[in-house]
Every structure is written in C-alpha cells, then in structure tokens.
Amino acid sequence: MRLARKPEGDLPKLLSRGPLAVRKLRLIAGTGIAIAVIGIAVLSLLKEISDRRPSDLVAMRQYRISLLTDDEIRKMHADAEHEFQKIQRDAVDEDKAFWRQYSQECARTQSDVAYRMRHSDECRMPLTWQSNGKPLDQRSIEQIFEAKMLGICNLAFTVGQARRYGGLPR
C-alpha cells in the first residue's frame, strides 16, 4: 500500500507563517533562478567554444555530398568541365585579341624604320606578354567542382559559420 504524502500547503499558508518563511521562500526561488541562469550561460559558452573550432572541409564535403543525388553530382561535375573549357577558350580568345590590338597600335613603328628609330620607346613589349594565352583562373576541373559543390561553405572558417552556411548539420 502506497502512502500518499499530503502537500505541505500552498503559498498562502507559507506566507502566513511569518517574515522568516517569506525570506526562505525568496532565497530558495532566487537560488533556483541563479542556478538556471548559470546553467544556461555555461551551456551557451560550451556551444560557443565548439562553434569557434576551425571548420573541417572533409566533413563539410561529406555532408554536402550526402544532400545531393547521384544525378546532381554528375551534372555538377559536367558543369565544372564545361566551365574549365570555357576558361581555357576565353584565355586563348583574349590572347588573340591582345596581339591583334598590339599589332594595330604598333603598326607604324614596325613598318617605318625612320619612325621606329626616332620613337624607340613607343611600342615596347608589355610585361605580361609571356602570360598571354594562359587563363588567370588556374584551377583544375576538380577544384572547380569542389567549389561548386561547397558553394558559400568555402568561406566558412569556423564550425559555427559552416553550420550557418549549410555546410554542416545544425
């Protein structure tokens, strides 16, 4: 047989016991609130510390891949290949345009010996002539694919940022 314990009374009964009981009640309530506030602060601090750890690109990559279907991954890789080829074509086109413009600007200097002798400093080779035909974006197909897959998560330097950007689960 279970003995039911009768509650000690309600608040009016406690308050009727006098000012000492009210002080004890306030002390107990204040202590409970203080413990709750300290607990919440400690939990927030622990979360903040864990969110400030450096982000893990491998973990972000695995999480982002888990969100994609096989067809989306294949399409994203094909897009990276197309972008790589476009970068290469654009670099060749820019190189041809540069040399065409250079030839037009220097046509008089190159064709007239007297003018070239008097104005020798007018048509010099540019400092970047050896880099023409090479793209400024030197990324490989795989690097372009990784950048497309991670998206803005590439800019996450902490775990907290990676979670906000969708690179890690919340």
The chain-level mean pLDDT equals 81
How many β-strand stretches?
A: 0
Largest sheet: none
Counting structural domains, the number is 2
* End-to-end Cα distance: 49 Å
How do you describe this structure in short?
With 170 residues, the chain is mostly helical. It is 67% helix and 0% strand.
Question: How would you sum up this structure, described in words?
Answer:
The chain has 170 residues and is mainly α. It folds into two domains: 11-49; 57-165, no CATH class. It is built from eight helices and no strands. It has helices at residues 11-16, 19-51, 57-67, 70-105, 107-111, 113-118, 141-150, 159-165. Helix 4 crosses helix 7 (141-150). The two termini are 49 Å apart.
Topology:
Elements: H1 11-16, H2 19-51, H3 57-67, H4 70-105, H5 107-111, H6 113-118, H7 141-150, H8 159-165
Helix pairs in contact: 4-7
Question: Notable features of this structure?
Answer:
single chain, 170 residues, mainly alpha, 2 domains, 8 helices, 67% helix, 0% strand
